[in-house]
Amino acid sequence: MVSQYKLSVCPHDTAKNLLGWFTLNTYLQRKLGTGIHFEPQDNFLIERKAVLEEEHHVVVYANPYSALCFARDKGFVPVARPVNVVDETIVVARAGAEVPAAPRIASATDKLIIHNLGLKVLERAGIDSGAAEFKFVGNHLNAAKAVLQGEADLGFVFNETWAGMNASTRAELQVIGESHDGHAFHCFMVAPEWADKREAIQQILCGMHLDPAGLRVLEDLKFKAFEPIGDEIIPVLIKLAGG
């Protein structure tokens, strides 16, 4: 019988290693002694909508913008984040290209913190975002592709996406600017429905690097460890999101 309780994970992360997240869910279930159903999504907005509208999503691994939505609208509480992993934005143009006064800008969506950070990079670079034409292309890699294909003058690219691109592709692009805020990151959150399990989940996640089985899961997902966090991150996310 499928458990009524659900885990949801940001699609950017499941796209990189879907099996690794199933393994983490199995680890969490065993440690808690409770069934949790994991049904991955491949779209940021659909995944967010499901958590906000469907019942029994009790644990989420959320991108910063979704984390803010889940805390504000459903009362989710942050419990853990990956150590030394932050979300930043790199603004790119075609190598050697001039940036026009009214640039066409490709961004995955304006419903991710990467977009907000990109706007701040533009401001620091003296580029008027008010004169820009934005094209929302669904994911971060598509933003880079739009620039390469001449469909956009600038692209907002997630730092992790940029790092994962091959050297020859990066050589066709130039970095106009990048954020160094260090305040945005993905995190695990627990729903009010599981308030009684919040501390146990935090301890399990933050102790994984000390457990051989947990360490294998972390290494597969390319994380060093998780560290504890709490509600103190929410005001920071509100500020980053322009709220």
CA(first)-CA(last) distance: 42 Å
CATH superfamily of the largest domain: Periplasmic binding protein-like II
SS-based structural class? alpha/beta
Strand content: 15-25%
CATH-derived topology of the largest domain: D-Maltodextrin-Binding Protein, domain 2
Biggest beta-sheet profile: 6 strands, mixed
Radius of gyration from the alpha-carbon trace, in angstroms: 19 Å
Number of domains: 2
Secondary structure: helix percent: 40-55%
CATH uppermost class of the largest domain? Alpha Beta
Number of helices: 11
Mean pLDDT: 95
Quickly list its features.
41% helix; elongated; Phosphate ABC transporter substrate-binding protein; 2 domains; 6-stranded mixed beta sheet; 5-stranded mixed beta sheet; single chain; D-Maltodextrin-Binding Protein, domain 2; 243 residues; alpha/beta; 11 helices; 11 strands
Describe the protein's architecture and organization.
This is Phosphate ABC transporter substrate-binding protein. The chain is built from eleven helices and eleven strands. The protein is α/β, with parallel strands linked by helices and about 240 residues long. The protein folds into two domains: about 5-85 and about 185-240, Periplasmic binding protein-like II (D-Maltodextrin-Binding Protein, domain 2); about 90-180, D-Maltodextrin-Binding Protein, domain 2 (3-Layer(aba) Sandwich). The chain has a six-stranded mixed beta sheet with strand order 2-1-3-10-4-11, with helices on both faces. It has a five-stranded mixed beta sheet with strand order 7-6-8-5-9, with helices on both faces. It is elongated. The mean pLDDT is about 95.
